[in-house]
Amino acid sequence: MSDSLQPSPMASERPVLAGRSRGDRAARAIAVVGIVAALTAALFAWDARQSLRNLESKAGGRLAELGDEAAQSRASLAQAQAALKESQSRLTELEARVAEAQEGRVQLEEMYRDLSRNADDRLLSEVEQMLVLASQQLQLAGNVRGALAALQTADQRLAKAEKLAAAPLRRALGQDMDRLKALPLVDTVGIAVKIDNLVSSVDQLPLVVAETLPPTRLASRAKPLDEQPGFTRAARDFWEEMKGLVRIRELEGNDAALLAPTHAYFLRENLKLRLLSARVALLARDELSFRDDLKAAQAWLNKYFDSKAKPTAAALATLKQVSESPVSITVPDINASLAAVRTARASREKTR
């Protein structure tokens, strides 16, 4: 029994061998794993080395590129600096030109203000001169039309000067123009023209007693001398002269003016002088002398000239029309306008 219970030596060696084989397998496995790990590590090391070499090559190429870019950047920077310096010089030049332009603009504005001021002063001076001439025309010749035209021209000139504060002056001009327009119209020029026409027609007015031979006698004297013999022609001329000593004419007035031919010439000249004297009185606005001269001219026409003749009748009608025309009127002054323009000039001189 005891012998059967004791293990045999073969049975006891089997577990030991089995344990050893398992240990060998584990060691081999570990060795394999180690080898694989070593290979893997070597592979990774080689890959890392290759990657490092690639990285180094890439880094070198990149550094070279960066060096080129840096060189280019330095060249660009140098160009930019040069351009900046040029721009700064140009900017300085432009600033100088702008300063000159500003100074020129200021000078131009000053010149423009001076010119405007001078233009306004010149306009006021011209307006004052026109008003002085208009006042002289009114006071010396009573030329209402001329004065009114001068005032209207001055008002139009002032209306175009927008920068000139001329409202008080234009108001004074308007008041003076209204007063001149309210005056009765005296056609001095028209009356003077009519008197001149009368003066030029005096030589054609027929006298009451004709200065020339009758038409029948003129016709008889105009016959050809060859148609009659010498004795008959002499007798005819003698008879014509004898008939010329006596003239029979029917006169309506009791005191007919019989004038010699030389006296007729002086009569016409004196009539012209009377008409010219009336014209001078018209221009001088001397109504009394104007009426007296026209009355004397009418009296001479009625006394010495044939009033039935058409030229004389026309002359008498013209004299009547002229004598009824107004000559002298009370002309107002334009002192208000003169005072206004002088006040405007004085105020402008004070503001300088």
Automatic annotation (TrEMBL):
Q: Which keywords accompany this UniProt record?
A: Coiled coil, Membrane, Transmembrane, Transmembrane helix
Give the residue spans that cross the bilayer: 26-46
**May I ask which residue range the UniProt record assigns to the signal sequence?**
none
Where are the coiled-coil regions?
Answer: 63-118
Name the InterPro entries for this protein.
Answer: HemX
Family annotation (Pfam families) = HemX (PF04375)
Top-rank taxon of the source lineage equals Bacteria
Query: Could you tell me which PANTHER family the record lists for this protein?
Result: PROTEIN HEMX
The protein's name in its UniProt record? Uroporphyrin-3 C-methyltransferase
| Origin organism lineage | Bacteria, Pseudomonadati, Pseudomonadota, Betaproteobacteria, Nitrosomonadales
